[in-house]
């Protein structure tokens, strides 16, 4: 029998896609959301991938679950509270999986559950939440997910990490078990650090990074700094950070970044975990990252002024 997988944040954009893929692969899966109350069977849609019926639970109902795998698909700043809620529910999973952007989330799961029970599933796909409830719409052509543990954290990765990648792949995503996830985590960090804040500053879709020379120059500087900080931390990114950022920006040109959508909706962004984490870690290693520091401050400054402004993806 397949392990029970609980997707915390399973009504959000990234989580809905993961939950639908797992259910379509035949996994036993439940989505856990902030809603009050118990569990009820619902049709969850991931447009561009498919749909599935599965239990959607508030934390009261989630207390009855005993998942072997917990996939945390919350925003990075909500992860600490989600882990606390999991522990209060009496969960003791064999594998806890981070799907957050940036740095800090996988480390938090390693502290909470131990390195051998903590993994990351890096979602390279773009998704936006459907209005009015659970579900998401896939954007762009990417369906890539990289699953693995941090080899440098010590301890062997649970075999369930490989099984999770297999299930996500069977459910329609292009998931791969990569073993040591750290080079891929820094590759994705370079993409997020280069694309997300630049689209906020330009207030434009991802294509601005490759079409506008000023946006491209800034994005290249941001990605280049991520590569320098990664190497100072002892990690070689899975691919050249600048090339990765430009490749993803071009492939997802019609998308709006999650950071732009968060700012437009008046939600908190993950800038502290992306560009903020880069320049702070760089300082600790004696490697300045002034471009990342500057855009971090700029986005934090602009967040309240841009809140409620019409997103270019709604036009």
Approximately how much helix is present in the residues?
Answer: 40-55%
Counting H and I runs of at least 4 residues, what is the number of helices? 12
Structural class: alpha/beta
**Whole-angstrom Rg:** 18 Å
The parts where pLDDT drops under 50 for at least 5 residues are none
**What is the number of E strands?**
11
Task: Summarize model confidence as the mean pLDDT.
Answer: 92
Percentage of residues in strands: 15-25%
Q: Cα distance, first to last residue?
A: 46 Å
Largest sheet, in brief, is:
11 strands, mixed
For the largest sheet, list the strands in their spatial order. Answer: 8-9-3-4-2-1-5-6-7-10-11
Compressed to H and E, one letter per element, the order equals EHEEEHEHEHEEEEHEHHHHHHH
**Shape field:** globular
Structural account:
This protein is α/β, with parallel strands linked by helices and 315 residues long. The protein has 12 helices and 11 strands. The chain has helices at 13-24, 59-62, 79-88, 105-113, 159-170, 182-202, 208-211, 213-232, 241-251, 258-264, 275-284, 290-306; strands at 4-8, 28-32, 39-47, 50-57, 69-72, 95-98, 118-123, 126-129, 136-139, 144-149, 174-180. The protein has an 11-stranded mixed sheet, sandwiched between helices. Helix 5 links the parallel strand 10 (144-149) and strand 11. The longest helix has 21 residues, at 182-202. The mean pLDDT is 92.
